[in-house]
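User: Structure tokens for both sequences below?

Assistant:
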Amino acid sequence: MKIGVLTSSRADYGIFLPLLNELKKDIFFDLEIIAFGTHISDSHGFTLSDIIKDEYDTIHKITSLVDDDSEKGIAISYGNTVLEFSNFWSTQKFDLVFCLGDRFEMSAAVQASIPFGVKLAHLHGGETTLGAIDNIYRHQITLASKYHFVSTNINFQKVKELTGSSNFIYDVGSLSLSNIETFKPDDRSVFFKNYDINDAPYILVTFHPETVSAKNNLAFAKIMKDALTILCNKINVIITMPNADTLGSVYRKELNKLKDSNPEKILLVENFGKVNYFNAMFYSTLLIGNTSSGIIEAASFNKYVINVGDRQKGRTHGTNVFNTGFDSVKIIEIFNNLINEKDFKMDNIYFKKHTARNIISKLKKI
């Protein structure tokens, strides 16, 4: 069975890894990687190199993004991606192609596949993020896909509502948590040395633009910077940089200013990769930001999360997540309340055992 896997960013590649490892070692499958989006971008860490290191037999590389994260620039990149993939789908044939999530690049690749009748399997459909236009892209991808591997029963019902049928929808849990029970972090001293991290408590921070409220992002970025300026006087701060979203450069600019003003307390990381991101989460005190990892993964590491703004609004989450608007006073208040709390101890609502293996099993039955 010839399987293609669409990966457009460090984020979805990290989520895909457990499934990719299962596909690679099963002779039933002929696996090919289709890498595009920020994987090919030097300004986002050129994460194609990470894919190459993992030694796949076939890696297709598709370049389509322009160096412009304005609304017009994102639209141009979307159009370029559709054009490049129209050529790709016209020459490449697969029994099934996996797509994941809600990125605009992923949506463009999927939309280009529709006239060619490509059979798509979508992961993480049915979720809701009202503060990002990704919400629209995710539902577009769902409607274009034949098979659906969702992360919770709530998302199962949403996909059923969107597609008008419960056929080929499978509640398998979050793929990123597959085999999380066996995860063992690297030795603390080794991990800290590899990333030049000071051996002291730190918070892990990731902020992305709110693409529904694009005009407010400059104000949001400044509020984020103000809050982190105060917090870095209390604790070290490790920040993973934003993806290629509309006006992501606004956040990058403020984060670089923050680093320049507090070089001993702030560490900026372009790309941890999945394993080292999990290491960073494991050793952190808590998480702050508006990224899906705080909603989906943090509970498995017993971490509290301060979820800021509306980017993740509507996404189901556990009681470890504390929501607030872009308000520096409120962010600091919640931090002060949580900093001395014991680790969060409850099940992760996104976790199911053996997610990757269960997907493989469903594929073979299909």
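Moving on to the next sequence.
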Amino acid sequence: MTTSWQGRATIASSITDAAALALYWLAGFVLISGISTQNYPLPKNAWFCLCVTLCILGCVIMIAADVQKFSTLRVKRGLITDGMFKRVRHPNYLGEMMVYGSFTLLAWHWIPVLVLAYYWGLMFSTNMAMKEASMSRYPDWREYKERSWWLVPYVF
């Protein structure tokens, strides 16, 4: 469990965090402001169903992984290799990517795509690589890494 979020907040850190959240909210802003034409590749009802399903499934994956990690690490410290983590090494990130990806698909505009490319390509991938480096200290890491996937089983 990370303690990096338990430090004191400064004005600068608050502004930085608010700016980061504002970038996430761009998809919603683009959607409700009328900037996007929303010429979806599927009929609107099917597209909305896809986006809502992706969002709900992402929330379930993210919350289930958080609950499993919290509960397991309270009882026993170490590498979690079962449950949500059995096939995917970063289910929390996968769930979050599904949630914000659904917002971007709903907005159907290039601005939210750029924001996600930044977060996924720079922030998330860096954090996942650092997490993997940290997990590599456990004796059963190599075997776990060979039988699990970074994010999506059988794809990535």
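User: Anything stand out in the second?

Assistant: Residues 38-147 form one domain.
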